[in-house]
Amino acid sequence: MNPLVSIHNRVFGLVEIAGDWLLPLFARFTFAAVLLVYYWNSGLTKLGDGIFGLFSPSIGAYSQIFPKQLEAVGYDVSQLGLFHWAVVMAGTYAEFILPLLIVIGLFTRLAALGMIGFVVVQSLTDVYGHGATDLATLGAWFDNQASGVIMDQRLFWVFTLSLLVIKGAGALSVDALMRGRTQAAMA
């Protein structure tokens, strides 16, 4: 029995070492494959027309982020204040910048933490702002349905992002490159 345990420990010891290198890379790949285009397309819907659309969000941006407030002012964006504009712009820029940082592996832990916050706010907005409370959309944990957009899917998103917060970007990242240069400069 001891030789079998020894082989097991050696093999899975190597798997564990490889996992420290591979898991962050796979998490970033998964994020890129599933969520990068999703968030960038969402960000594009929030930009206004022309080059100045970078500073003047579309009405769609306000309707996605502040649906009830926009309805309350009769869909007249000019009735919303500086706070609303700043939140919409921050959310729009975050949909472009945070995913990019995660994919290239730059400031990955902070970007992933920011994305976790973003997913939480997005989910709360979907539920309380847009009224997404039907079970098919909301979903539930520990049931026999794995297709709920908010509870089920976003739990996987947050898990993937949490792995990046805990483990970092991994060996194939800008973070690792910068870490290597910093260590070389200190030596």
UniProtKB/TrEMBL annotation:
Localisation: Membrane
Keywords: Membrane, Transmembrane, Transmembrane helix
Main localization (coarse): membrane
A Pfam family the protein falls into: DoxX
TM regions (residue ranges): 21-40, 82-103, 110-129, 155-178
GO cellular component, one term: membrane
InterPro entries membership: DoxX (IPR032808)
Protein name: DoxX family protein
Mode of membrane association: Multi-pass membrane protein
Domain of life: Bacteria
UniProt keyword annotation of Transmembrane present: yes
Organism: Ruegeria pomeroyi
